[in-house]
Specification:
- By secondary structure, the chain is mostly helical.
- It has 12 helices and no strands.
- Helix 1 runs parallel beside helix 3 and helix 7 packs antiparallel against helix 8.
- The N and C termini lie far apart (40 Å).
Length: 244
């Protein structure tokens, strides 16, 4: 099953695409991920987790990007079913994933965001309380990956997962710098929309901003005005059918 997850096409422009097609469930790697998810949920962590612990570390250390990608996706796929078993060693698992935020291959960085985002959902709010200082700096830095929109968009999606169930007191120390980063990214991606009609990252950044505002509640008020010009521009000018 893990070997099947390495069966990926080496698409040169994959990370630069702005239009993302629906995942083909007939692809070996997609089918294997879904099978691992179902297997973990059916058998539980006591049965599945020992195999993950044995098989995934060598995959993460591989020089072949497809193996690193599959190792991270295996953590994502097994997280729900292995929740109790993984929770006992959550910090170790997260620390094993974090270096791949800076991996040389964009699809490995994508898979790392996927793993962190999945764990943020499956282990909330423990994940946010215990791992915020380790996870957030890497994800926020990865928002600068302008050369790879699919990675950038997936990073913003992982931040949605993180902040949806995040205790407000965990968010607040990050709020000023986080809003500054979000505002700068929003402005840059709004300009990209105007100049090149690229919208993948912009759509996700708007959702991420909304999630942060929802969690911050009235603490978001001082930052409200900085977002309004770009958001109003989008509302007034995104009139083409594909932008609605």
């Amino acid at each position: 099953m893990l070997q099947m997850m390495t069966d990926l096409e080496d698409e040169e422009n994959w990370a630069m695409e702005d239009e993302v097609e629906d995942v083909d469930s007939d692809e070996n790697c997609v089918a294997a991920e879904a099978a691992l998810d179902r297997l973990a949920c059916a058998l539980g962590g006591k049965m599945v987790m020992p195999h993950i612990i044995q098989a995934v570390p060598p995959m993460l250390q591989s020089k072949e990007w497809k193996h690193r990608y599959a190792g991270l996706m295996a953590i994502s796929a097994s997280a729900e079913g292995c929740k109790k078993a993984m929770e006992a060693n959550l910090q170790g698992i997260v620390m094993a994933c974090l270096p791949y935020v800076a991996d040389e291959h964009p699809r490995v960085r994508f898979a790392c965001c996927n793993a962190l985002g999945q764990m943020a959902t499956d282990f909330s709010p423990l994940f946010q309380k215990k791992m915020h200082d380790k996870v957030l700096p890497g994800l926020i830095h990865l928002l600068d990956d302008d050369a790879h929109p699919r990675v950038q968009s997936h990073t913003a999606a992982a931040l949605v997962n993180f902040f949806e169930e995040c205790p407000q007191n965990v968010l607040l120390p990050y709020l000023p710098n986080l809003c500054q980063k979000m505002q700068a990214t929003l402005e840059k991606k709004t300009m990209e929309l105007v100049q090149t009609h690229r919208k993948l990252v912009l759509e996700q950044i708007i959702t991420t901003i909304a999630t942060i505002a929802d969690t911050a509640e009235n603490h978001f008020t001082p930052f409200y005005q900085s977002f309004m010009p770009n958001l109003k521009y989008i509302m007034e000018n995104a009139n083409d059918k594909e932008l609605r």
